[in-house]
Amino acid sequence: MSRGERIITIPLVILLIALTIAALRVDLASLLSFEATSTATEETGISANPVLLEPAPNRAGDPSQATFDVIRIDPEGTSVFAGRGPAGSLLTILANGVAVATVRPNTEGQWAVAVEHRFDPGEYEFALAPKTGEGRSSPSPQRVSLHLAGTKKPPVAVVEREAAPQAFLPSPITFIYDEANFTDAGRAQAAVFAAFLKERHVATATLTGHADERGSELYNIRLSQERLDAVVRYLREAGFSGKLVLIPMGKREPFAGAERRHLPEVEAFALDRRVELKRVQ
Q1: What confidence tens digit (pLDDT) does each residue in 2-28 have?
Q2: Confidence of residue 277 (pLDDT cuts 50, 70, 90)
Q3: In the beta sheet, which residues pair with residue 70?
Q4: Structural domain spans, the chain
Q5: Residue 230: φ, ψ to 5°
Q6: Torsion angle, CA of 182/219/257/263, rounded to 10 degrees?
Q7: What is the model's pTM?
Q8: Residue 132, phi-psi category: left (phi > 0), alpha (psi -120 to 50), beta (remainder)
Q9: Which residues fall within 8 angstroms of residue 109, CB to CB, at 6 or more apart?
Q10: pLDDT at residue 119 in the model
Q11: H-type helices in the chain, by residue range?
Q12: What does the alpha-carbon distance between residue 201 and residue 165 come to, in Å, rounded to a whole number?
């Protein structure tokens, strides 16, 4: 190779080396960039298979928030208590600090109980004592005072609430299968209906009658009407004189207040056999 050829070849070799190094740096940079992006994606938890996390505990169901809606004391018969509380909690009803009944709110957070207990004339303070996780009872802040005179007229306390009464209608009256007779809980709830309507001086109440899905449409409509008639008789005998609008629904409107898919079929059907207070004016 002549001297002139060597002078031309050396710069070309140097140029090729420089281009090769530059290409390697670009590839290295792209690789580093890809690794950084992959790491960032992993850190933020993005994944093709998302992980389901357990929800945070719900602290809204505090049993100390249980309250009365209705207290109807009958010295010579059956007294009725009704109210609200966390679904499934166990509540003890206290009269001047003495337990007279225990009750468990339904899936809607409503409860009602009929009590066979003799109440002598005098002053009474009623409270609810929810069971805590340790099994101990501590009365809730609400207190309801009643004066029980030596008369036959049952005193009634209807606890007023800040929200509109329409939002706090009593839970339904339930019935025995294929009958127009109240269940035990339904009879207690019928007393709550009467106290609610009378003490709030309701002029017009709309009631709907219902049956479970078994049986023909015509049969269930008739059964719904018979259940409505049973409630009307009870309310009239209890002294309610307002207007009653009756709507027999048959099996067309299953009870939607509970998580039916979590209930055995027999319990869901029991909730369907009912009379509901839909509206008051």
Answers
A1: 555 555 555 555 555 555 555 544 443
A2: very high
A3: 82, 158
A4: 1-43, 62-159, 164-281
A5: -65, -40
A6: 90
A7: 0.62
A8: beta
A9: 84, 85, 86, 87
A10: 84
A11: 3-43, 184-199, 217-237, 265-272
A12: 12
Q: Residue 147: which pLDDT band, with cuts at 50, 70 and 90? A: confident
Identify any residues that bridge with 110 across adjacent strands, giving them in sequence order.
Answer: 84
DSSP assignment letter at 180: S
- R_g of the chain, CA atoms, integer Å: 35
Distance CA 40, CA 131 (A): 50
Task: Report the alpha-carbon angle 194-128-186, nearest 5.
Answer: 35
- Condensed to tens digits (0 to 9), the pLDDT of residues 153-176 reads 666 555 654 443 444 678 899 999
Q: Does domain 164-281 have CATH number 3.30.1330.60?
A: yes
Q: How far apart are the first and last CA of the chain?
A: 115
Q: Say whether 164-281 and 62-159 share the same fold.
A: no
Q: Which two tokens stand for residue 119?
A: 């109440």
* Superfamily of structural domain 62-159: Immunoglobulins (2.60.40.10)
Average pLDDT for 224-228:
96
Can you tell me the distance from the alpha carbon of 79 to that of 126, in angstroms, rounded to the nearest whole number?
A: 13
Instruction: Supply the pLDDT for residue 62.
Output: 62
